[in-house]
Specification:
InterPro entries: Phage_virion_morphogenesis. Pfam families: Phage_tail_S. This is Phage virion morphogenesis protein. The protein is an alpha+beta fold and 45 residues long. The chain has one domain. Helix content is 36%, strand content 13%. It has a two-stranded antiparallel sheet with strand order 1-2.
């Protein structure tokens, strides 16, 4: 719920809470490409 910014009830009969979106940490495609290039450049030395 939290990473998508959805609503959730605190209890079955409780009030609804809106949570802001909080993206999970991770690597983008660009991050992976940059890391690969750095590793390959290091191995080429």
């Amino acid at each position: 719920v939290h990473q998508f910014g959805l609503s959730e009830e605190t209890r079955k009969d409780g009030k609804k809470i809106d949570y802001p979106a909080r993206p999970l940490l991770g690597f983008t495609g660009e991050d992976v490409q940059m890391i690969e290039e750095i590793i390959l450049a290091h191995l080429d030395r």
